[in-house]
Amino acid sequence: MLRWFRIKLQNGILQVAADNNYPGSISLDNEFIEVMHNTRTFKLIQCPYDQVKELSMKVIIQIPCYNEAETLPVALAELPRNLEGIDEVEWLIVDDGSSDETVNTAISAGVDYVVSHRRNMGLAKAFLTGLEACARLDADIIVNTDADNQYYAGDIQKLINPILSGKAEYVIGTRPINQIEEFSFLKKQLQKFGSWVVRVLSQTNIQDAPSGFRAISRSAALRLHVFNQYTYTLETVIQAGQSGIVTTCVPVKTNEQLRPSRLISSIPSYLQKSSTTILRSLATYRPFTFFVVPGVILLLIAILLGMRYLYFLFSGGGAGHLQSLILAVMLFVTGFSTITIGFLTDLIAINRKLIEDVEFQTKSLLFRLTQLQGDPESDFLTHGKLVYSRRKTEN
Question: Do residue 154 and residue 142 come from a single domain?
Answer without folding.
Answer: yes
